[in-house]
């Protein structure tokens, strides 16, 4: 007999390349304005003093290859192609060396965004939740273990909509490295397995519509795909 009044939500997870067991998700952190060119296209500047973050609920995670309806409450739904990484062991107030050792693996991700609702928050100096913390907007491809991926540098990161190039950059353009993000974020949270960090998007974000197919990739990682369905 269940101890809960209602059915407990399913555990969301990300497959791991070559492995039978998946990586379960407990939290999703997102780094804001982590590419200078994207910050500029959004009318802002990079904060080079410290990284900053917003979050998405784990329940919003969906796998690569999914079809998701165009969400309610927006007329300007945007794609954002990102590198994501997953934490593999507990870490708190990590040194640079400890931060590097805490990364389990890397994967492609999409941070889908109600851009108009995000702009509302900016204009009124309110939170971005209606723009970012949206059902079905954290899309993940399978993870590749960090030891198999190697060092981050000039790997290409790109996205296409219906085969047309929208975003094309390299990971060396990241303002804050993954290790720097772990070291900083672990000052404020006890990071542990299940924590996934999306590292921000390069320039070229833009709207998608029902019927569109989004594809993207990062050199050395499994590609990502999302189909946009009709509104519900």
Tell me what portion of residues adopts beta-strand conformation. Answer: 25-35%
Computed CA radius of gyration, to the nearest angstrom: 17 Å
Give the helix tally. Answer: 6
Number of DSSP strand runs? 18
Dominant shape: globular
The secondary structure category is alpha+beta
CA-CA gap between termini: 34 Å
**Helical percent range?**
10-25%
**Mean pLDDT across every amino acid position:** 95
Extract low-pLDDT stretches. none
- Helix and strand element order: EEEHEEEEEHEEHHEEHEEHEEEE
Structure commentary:
The chain is built from six helices and 18 strands. With 232 residues, it is of the alpha+beta class. Strand 13 and strand 14 form a beta hairpin. Strands 3, 4, 5, 8, 9, 11, 12 and 15 form an eight-stranded mixed sheet that branches. It has a five-stranded mixed sheet with strand order 6-18-17-13-14, with no helix packed on it. The mean pLDDT is 95.
Write a compact overview of the structure shown.
Helix content is 16%, strand content 33%. It has six helices and 18 strands.
Any key phrases for this structure?
18 strands, alpha+beta
SSE layout and pairing:
Layout: E1 13-14, E2 23-24, E3 27-31, H1 36-41, E4 53-56, E5 61-63, E6 66-69, E7 77-79, E8 81-87, H2 96-101, E9 103-111, E10 113-114, H3 115-124, H4 129-132, E11 138-140, E12 144-145, H5 146-149, E13 156-161, E14 164-170, H6 178-185, E15 195-198, E16 206-207, E17 213-218, E18 224-229
Parallel strand pairs: 3-15, 5-11, 6-18
Antiparallel strand pairs: 1-2, 3-4, 7-10, 7-16, 8-9, 8-15, 9-11, 9-12, 13-14, 13-17, 17-18
